[in-house]
Amino acid sequence: MTSVPNPPGGNVAERLSRTAGLFPDQLALIVCDQHGHSTTQHTFRELDELVDRLAAGLIQQGVSPGDRLVLMVRPGTEFLALTFAMFRAGAVVVLIDPGMGLRRVVTCLEQARPDGFVAISRVQWARFLYRRRFPGARLNVRVGGWAPASCSYRQLANTQLTGFQPPDILSQDPAAIIFTSGSTGPAKGVEYEHGMFCAQADLLQTHFGIAAGERDLPGFPLFALFNVVMGVTSVFPDIDPTRPADVDPRHIVAPIMEQQVTQAFGSPALWERVGQHCREHQLTLPSLSRVLSAGAPVPPHVVESMRDALTASGADIHTPYGATEALPVAVISGRNIVSSTASRSAAGAGTCVGTLFPEIEVRIARIDDEPVKSFSDLQLLPLGDIGEIIVRGPSVTKRYFQRSQATALAKVTDGDTTWHRMGDVGYLDAEGRLWFCGRKAHRVETDSGTLFSVPCEAIFNQHSAVRRSALVGIGERPHQRPAIVVECHDPRGPSESLAKELHTLAANHSLTESIESVLFHPSFPVDIRHNVKINREQLATWAASQPASLQHHR
């Protein structure tokens, strides 16, 4: 296996053509049934030719460089082929998680002001129903079934290539608008340039030593785009990627085994189910060399269960840290978590997200909720001090689409480069490792100081009865009253003595000694995309509404 030589610059779709030229007969994608058997497969040459026909068809339909096209199709052949066809035609691909729910999806897509929809028939019917909200959507392609549209996927796929010449696209030209999950505020469209996609793939490939010819199972379909660039085969499982916490683990394990997958990406919720399934059935995954998990901190028990299932030499689980606006930033291996950082995290040091990727720079700045125009206006903090994490590098995005206020809050200019304010708090240690201490919005400011969610929650999570906990602030900053909300492992709820035991835990640690209120919640609200991020804003509102009789005070 070898790496694909990928010089920077130009249309990201050129990377597919380069891969097809080097490895024409290698499989680009395999679509599996629930048993892991292949139902559809295409080589890189076949995928590249299909992308050419689709791009030519889009251009014949009137698509011009810069046109924004919403893509909403199921993971598999159509997803990969249409994405790269839009790149090749110079269109801007608008991607959004349909798991957000219809109302939020429609609101986000209205903000994107699309020139058209390339989508399954159900989405096309929804677009037709809400057509007054999308007055510019004139270029509509239905994928499967029938719905009101300009043409069908099948028609585009049969386009003749005589005289086809794709437009010239530069690395700084817009490639996509990808919406954030909206787990800590309104979902925003992040503007991606072609060069940013290329940089992301190059950073991942270089750090992990990913070789052309490997096979990857993308539990989050968007990561299949990197596979195409790297010459890696994408193995699509038969799952609903919008609901990772509800995935049948057998539908992940089967394709990994059947298709000899070497790498897999998924959220912590997905790997929790897979790791538990492998432990219960004494299964191992000998072909897997690399498991990647992102979207939220990975609990130590998930790291341990997945490491137990990995038997290949040097195999491990890795947790890249980043965000839709800046990915990847840092990474840590399961081996390092278990041997070096897990005990410190349990004692309240935060979650170590590891060392930085090459070409990525991180600084820690004094926490500020207001816009910062210039990097010189930031007050940078020394090693070990908790502050706001800011990042710059070739994969860091520059702005949100049509959201100037959000851009002003999140971006800081520094000459001709841009720093992104992650919205997270943390610190750098003396070894150059980055530690995550929670979201900036989730800090609790009290009369006696500021509390951060991840370090404080770790103290309570040590108790065997606690499944997870959430620090919330009741009242307004900077005079909030801190409270801890607890979800128990036992669905029957807490025992009478548990609140006292948690109060004792809190009182014995300097980080949590000021927390005097403990509340119990039956099931935490979590984010839609990864099913892991706790909605602390919702819990804070709930906690404030609880009668005094249900609040356990020290």
Which key features would you list for this structure?
Rossmann fold, 14-stranded mixed beta sheet, 16 helices, GMP Synthetase, Chain A, domain 3, alpha/beta, seven-stranded mixed beta sheet
Task: Give structural notes.
The chain has 554 residues and is α/β, with parallel strands linked by helices. It has three domains: 13-264, ANL, N-terminal domain (Rossmann fold, 3-Layer(aba) Sandwich), CATH 3.40.50; 267-438, ANL, N-terminal domain (Rossmann fold); 444-553, GMP Synthetase, Chain A, domain 3 (2-Layer Sandwich), CATH 3.30.300.30. Strands 1, 2, 10, 11, 12, 13, 14, 15, 16, 17, 18, 19, 20 and 21 form a 14-stranded mixed β-sheet that branches. The chain has a seven-stranded mixed β-sheet with strand order 7-6-5-3-4-8-9, with helices on both faces. It has a four-stranded mixed β-sheet with strand order 24-25-26-27, with helices on both faces. Strand 22 (444-446) and strand 23 form a beta hairpin.
Topology readout:
Elements: H1 13-22, E1 27-32, E2 38-43, H2 44-60, E3 68-72, H3 77-89, E4 92-95, H4 102-112, E5 116-120, H5 121-129, E6 141-143, E7 151-152, H6 153-157, E8 174-179, E9 189-193, H7 194-208, E10 215-218, H8 224-230, E11 233-236, H9 250-258, E12 263-266, H10 268-280, E13 290-293, H11 300-309, E14 316-323, E15 326-333, H12 334-349, E16 351-356, E17 361-365, E18 387-392, H13 404-410, E19 411-414, E20 417-428, E21 434-439, E22 444-446, E23 449-451, H14 453-461, E24 466-474, E25 481-488, H15 498-507, E26 517-520, H16 536-545, E27 552-553
Parallel strand pairs: 1-11, 3-4, 3-5, 4-8, 5-6, 6-7, 10-11, 10-12, 12-13, 13-14, 25-26
Antiparallel strand pairs: 1-2, 8-9, 14-15, 15-16, 16-21, 17-18, 18-20, 19-20, 20-21, 22-23, 24-25, 26-27
Helix pairs in contact: 1-2, 2-3, 7-8, 10-11, 11-12, 12-14
